[in-house]
């Protein structure tokens, strides 16, 4: 989840999408980036009048033109206010509180009469609030409100994947799982209308996340399978479009890693050899499919460690978790889980000092992760 | 509470300058000051010590003060080092105590008392603050009470406004520290009162600024954060650089720092307002103290301001502030640089947060943090750097170094698996991209570290899989990085390490594991070919491997062969070094194999010959050894002493052993040799017919035993007993009693720790035997009361009824029925204790105690084995019994006692034949009987 947010946030400075109904004409300083026949093209010196996932309308040299929404990758706006830029930089630097304050200021002191700012600033504000929600849960509702405002500003936004994805995540953090499922379903519908295959796979992934959060493991696993299938079905056709191919691959990887985690949880819960075998088999499959992927490697390592731990071999399990934590520290959720597992291993090995050290490292290095929250809640 | 930081040289200058006003021209003091300023504190101390011991009284006093100040400086410096380990904290506390004692010793000297009092008070406050921060169990309240008492003395002696004001501020500081250490006390309230009075007395003067700062700190401690910040603001802004007031900058900048820290840690409803207002003040720092911001105090204030900015949600500004301090600190202010890096590592170390930073800056942070002991921070800083390296260029320039730094940091913490993983990351990257020049360069060393980490992990776990992985990694290193400076010798190093592991396993008690590892080591050593530069050393190590495996003859043969072989001159410096190491190893193996073989010889008759062989080898090859190890004379003497003791020549060995005690008293071999020599002396004393010589040898043995006892980490009961018995045999009874008392209590404590009942009973029996020896020594010292107590406690331990019987017996009352049974039972079961008890009663000499002695002796006689006939014991008991009864008569017991004594002598030793038999079994018995009869006759008189 954090990876997705980080990826979205990273593109914030460049890919700011637009508005639907607001037809105020802007200065001719916008740039539209689109993909035609797998080739990236830019149209600069345009004034975008409206932007939806169906169509982007603009004027250039006094002449009006349109672009197919499905082909538009991003719009670079020519009138981005300073507060917005600073807030985006703060968010990239990990300072979500400053970023949230900056986006709120940008919204309050709107200098551009164009509607894109309401939409884009609310999306970014929602992202910042989502980051803060990991430390303080009250931010989850604020994030949901921001995403809702963005959606209201442009229901057919080019950023609808970020809007509905963020909304689903905010609702999960707020414990409103049905609302999260509804957001995922809305994204699924929008994906078809917008002809965006990546959105389809992401919608299935969000559905899996929501079901997992609700405790419906079997349905969640099915949803993750669905996400992988949807992404792989489109992957072959998207070979030319590098960005789309990367996004589909990401969806497949994340869904597979999530599924693996659920299979391990099932194996731990049931304690049956069949469940352990199923987890092991799937782990080997996904490792074979994406041998160089950091996230898959981290998830597979943690899965192997968890199964060893469940079988009573804390010493070898510990080595696996250490491997995840050292080599794949950038896969935040998995690295945090590895540290939480390390603490359990040390406890079983009777090393109270190292156990405390692992928990301290979890709290200091991975604050706001699910594993850190759980460890803090259980008072370990 | 913040810590004052100054550069050591400046602090020392200040400290020593204070002491030197009266003696500015004094050469020694000036010289010592110069030495200390350059970091030669130990030499400076020697100079001052010499100066304190000679010269005029005034000069000696000033030198003692300077010495104390030097120690205070050491203590404050150690406290600043801020090590987290309990052992380091304890060491620092010891330095504090030492410094305080140095001051206490000079308080009574009028020429230095005034300066010493103020210094001591400051030192005590710093001591208490350090103990509190380090959470050590130190009597902080008592320390601060002493500080306050010293301040009170200083206050009454102070003259002049400046001095008085300074001492009053010191009192406020001590009260603040006491309030911090004991919040329940009224110290903070008293501090506020004192501040109130101070500001009233000095109203309108700049001195109040110092008091405002303390008021702020006291109020912050009381939780009145808003008021605290107001007061700290007043202190901070009361003066600025424009005013040009000397000495005020430290206070003002410290107040800025305190204000920022206090506001940053504010909590509760008004916290945001407090922080906002404080931020407005702190933001003026740069304009109020533009040049001083670049001083150490200014940097600390700016770092505190950065923390405040972070707390107010302005992380970007916080980071910019810390980065500015880091850039300005350079190498001149490592503390500020370290603190800035620590903050930056925390702010950039959470995943994703460092992405915006320049890798070059993150590399600087990582390097600075890695120099410290904080593993977690080092790892976070390295990870932030790695995450920020998003291009192949930055990866090559910074990321691989960061992985290496991380691996080394894990290794330094002894976390070998994690260290291996970090190095493995570099190795696997190189395998994927072998043409990458940077990776090829860095893996030359990291591949070795990787294998080394695995080898150390294997040593730690003893796991066969780990060992195999380590061996594989070392082979891969040798194969893949032949050009590495580590490559030459990697295989050899592995073999040498295996032998070291075998030795470590043996020391840990794993004999089977040690043997298996030793065999592997031997195979690896023998596999090293003649082409290796380390061939010579490997051959010698192979001999050593045989020795460690218990194959002494093979070891000796190979070592001799190595030493006798004619070899060409080594071709390279490496080979020359290997040759020298090999020669030394061969000599050591030869000597130790001979010693081990001699010690392991089962046949006692053959053992001296084996030691003679060892001695011959030492004579033949000793010069070779000393040529390689010119400082090895002590070791040679130790070997020679061992060999001489083995051959039975204790007289020749003893001077060597005494030499060892002088030159290396704490060496384990010295202890071993001292005990061997002591045992030999004990045997020689027992065999000597000459009483004077016997005593002299026993005393020599006793002193050796005493060294063994004192140089052991934990005192050994058996050694203490041996020492005590030797001292007793040597005639030093008082010393003997002390040692036997120690031995008895150690033996009892040892027994109490044993879980197995049978084992415990055996240990208890040994402890009782020692206690008996102790009681006998007390008898010899005529300390009869103590002997009686010891014997009584032996007889009636955990036996209430027995204690009652002994209490009645000691009053001279006649025991009855069950009491008699009890005494007889004890006389039969624990004769030695009852015997000592009877002797103690008898020695005490009062009528009651003599009656007790008579009853005890009767019990002992009654429980003699009937079939044994006349024995030394039976004769001795009869004479002592008769003696006791006779003395009762003399002590006022009437003629009955005398008659009974005479009757007993007549009955048992009345005939010539009986007396002759008694003399035979107990030489001197006849004379004792004659003497007793004479005393009886004399006491009875003509009747």
Q: Would you kindly provide a written description of the structure presented here, covering whatever features stand out?
A:
- The complex is a heterodimer of chains A (380) and B (943).
- Chain A has 16 helices and 5 strands.
- Chain A is of the alpha+beta class.
- Chain A has a 5-stranded antiparallel β-sheet, with no helix packed on it.
- In chain A, a hairpin with a 3-residue loop joins β2 (39-51) and β3.
- Chain A is globular, with a radius of gyration of 22 Å.
- Chain A starts with a helix and ends with a helix.
- The model of chain A is unreliable at 1-25 (pLDDT under 50).
- By secondary structure, chain B is mainly alpha-helical.
- Helices cover 78% and strands 0% of the residues of chain B.
- Chain B is built from 45 helices and no strands.
- The radius of gyration of chain B is 40 Å and the shape is extended.
- The termini of chain B are far apart.
- The A-B interface holds A 2, 6, 10, 86, 89-90, 92-95, 97-98, 101, 319, 322-323, 326-327, 329-330, 332, 335, 357, 360-361, 364-367 and B 313-316, 319, 346, 348-357, 376, 379-380, 383, 387, 406, 417-418, 421-422, 424-425.
